[in-house]
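Annual report, structural modelling task.

Input specification for the aspartic acid complex:
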Amino acid sequence: MSDERATPWYRRLHWQIFTAMALGAAAGAIGGSEFADRVSWMGALFVRLLRMVIVPLVLTSVVSGVASIGGGRDVGRMFGKTFAYYIVTSLLAILVGLVFANAIRPGVGAELGGVGGGVLPAIETPTSIVDMLLRMVPTNPLAAAASGDILGLIVFSILLGLALGRLPDDARSRLLGVFEAGFQAMMVLTSGIIRLAPFGVFGLITSAVGSTGLEAFRALGWYALTVTGGLATHLLLVLPLLLILLGRIRPWVHFRNMAEPLAMAFSTSSSAATLPVTMRAVEQKVGVSNRISSFVLPMGATINMDGTALYECAGVLFIAQALGIELSFAKQMLVVLTALLASIGTAAIPSAGLVMIFIVLEAVELRGPQVDLIVGAMLAIDRPLDMARTAVNVFSDSCGAAIIARSEGETTVDLP
Ligand code: ASP
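The model returned the following structure:
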């Protein structure tokens, strides 16, 4: 730590990343889509490198983490705490979204006719809760890994870690050694990739700014304000309060330690692509043990999405308001519940949250060409909102890891 403080600011990675963000924003605004097209490959290459690490990282970290937790009872306790944290924070986020959407009422009088839509990414959405549960169990773990089915891979890795814990000492230590060494190798690889972050982030931000039309912002300004206001409240008020109350952690220390993953989540719009960076920061800077971070973070990146949950709720209320439909209290509660499920089922990739909004809309019977038109208009400004909600998603995961580590007796977490 003292070494890092002795380094001039411009040589510290997070400052380089923030500078790249500022330069990218300026380049995108001045150069427009033409310049953005020319540099977008830098961002694409960086994201590919990060994504390259995800599958081996999840496998090695979850298996070694779960195997080191201890017996079934310890795993059960961790599971309970982790899930309670995921559900409570997602619900809190949804309530923040609900309050903001009802207070600002961004959809009332929104003129969406002139806003051009885009093409929604093709993402398969689960059709029911049972379907969602079934999909979590892969029939073939290799196929799950090959197709990037992270949740399936996590489920297999947890079970493998549990089985490993029951092996005789000799067999266990041999196999565990392989997974632990594999995990360390992935961390080294991540540290190498992250050095390219300033270039990657420059490409990503330039293309995000260069390809988002300002016109759409004018029509959807109140909606954007509702979502960002809600996200900012959750990020700067709700989660810090939880850090203080549940973890006795100073929020600003946690923010400082999480600067790199936050910048990365914001630039890539993907919790999954950010996962290697999150794991590195939570272990090496926040100081959470691998035993806990490998349990909380990969699963958190795939199912704990506070920002997305908030967005689903605010987005659906916006659509109802734009259509002139008053949602009753009971219907709003249904939105809360389905927003929670939709956020759990959302893939950790760009724009997935907007695709999942159809599930929540369906629950309150909002469908038809007009709804499609509004979602199309929302797509026009989805990128910046996606950047913000992904940062919130990642921050909630890291807060969870820190709070759970504290509750498990780890006293060196987030030391000032
Ligand atoms: N992009 C978000 C994430 O990866 C998901 C979303 O679209 O809300 O966390």
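DSSP finds 19 helices and no strands in the chain.
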